[in-house]
Amino acid sequence: MEKFIKITGIAAPLPMINVDTDMIIPKQFLKTIKRSGLGKNLFHELRYDLNGNLKNDFVLNWEYYNKSIILVTGENFGCGSSREHAPWSLLDFGFRCIVAPSFADIFYNNCFKNGILPIKLGSKETNYFLKQAEHKKLLSIDLEKQEISAKGGKKFIFNIDKFRKKCLLEGLDDIALTLKKSSKIDKYEDSLNESKPWLNL
Predict the structure, then answer these.
(1) How many CA atoms lie within 13 A of 146 on its CB side?
(2) Sign (positive/negative) of CA torsion 176, 70, 80, 44?
(3) Residue 10 near residue 62, CB atoms below 8 Å
(4) What is the mean pLDDT of residues 108-121?
(5) How far apart are CA 113 and CA 36, in angstroms?
(6) pLDDT (average), residues 108-117
(7) Fold of 6-170
(8) Residue 163 and residue 19: Cα distance in Å, rounded?
(9) 171-187 pLDDT, tens digit each
(10) Per-chain mean pLDDT for the chain
(11) Distance between CA atoms of 3 and 139, rounded to whole angstroms?
(12) Spatial separation of the C-alpha atoms in residues 141 and 5, rounded to whole Å
């Protein structure tokens, strides 16, 4: 998993509430178990018409915002089913951070496991960054300082669990966390083989 320390980049404004995981990545694209290639289907029904052509009225289809790495959106983002394809598609598109007043719990947890930083801010602060994004101001996020700011604008502190922060800073997903304890696991298995050899028969 790629480390998350500091990023500065284009933020896409998506002032919608209750964006569910089926809107993020529709069910017909869930057949793959690969994390790559899903970005082109992100927000499929909002981005494409029935003939597969890009719509002109959706923010991620506009030339400036199609390079966004930060998404600023509304309350309860990621609600609905627990599909992990939702953060996969966001990450594959290029998003490293999502800013919202609130997130669905499972989606929020899945973001951390896939190297995406979900930032919870108050509605007033989120609206401020929505406006900054609409005016094409670059946003900066410093995870070590837990700061988010707009270029030439205000800075805000965000809260994050210490363990999740450490995992993002060091690029540790569940597998990497397990591998860090490989020597202890090997030691346990060796002792188990000695004390209960019949388990290997």
Answers:
(1) 12
(2) negative
(3) no
(4) 96
(5) 15
(6) 96
(7) Aconitase; domain 4 (3.20.19)
(8) 27
(9) 987 776 666 666 776 67
(10) 92
(11) 18
(12) 8
Q: Decide which of 118 and 199 is more confident.
A: 118
The secondary structure of residue 143, as a DSSP letter, is: T
Name the token pair of 6.
């500091």
Identity (one letter) of the amino acid at 130? L
Three-state DSSP class for residue 153:
coil
Average pLDDT of 85-92? 96
- What local confidence, expressed as pLDDT, does residue 178 receive? 67
- Tell me the C-alpha distance between 13 and 23, whole Å: 16
User: In whole angstroms, what is the distance from residue 198 CA to residue 106 CA?
Assistant: 41
What does the DSSP assignment read for 77-137?
A: BTBSS--THHHHHHHHHT--EEEES-B-HHHHHHHHHTT-EEEE--HHHHHHHHHHHHTT-
pTM: 0.89
**Run of H or E including 12:** strand 11-14
Residue range(s) occupied by CATH 3.20.19.10 in the chain: 6-170
Beta-bridged to residue 99, according to DSSP, are 72, 119
Q: Which amino acid is at 185?
A: I
Q: pLDDT digit string (tens) for 8-30?
A: 999 999 999 999 999 999 999 98
Residue type, 162: K
**Minimum mean pLDDT among 28-37, 65-74, 111-120, 135-144: which range?**
28-37
193's tokens? 């083989």
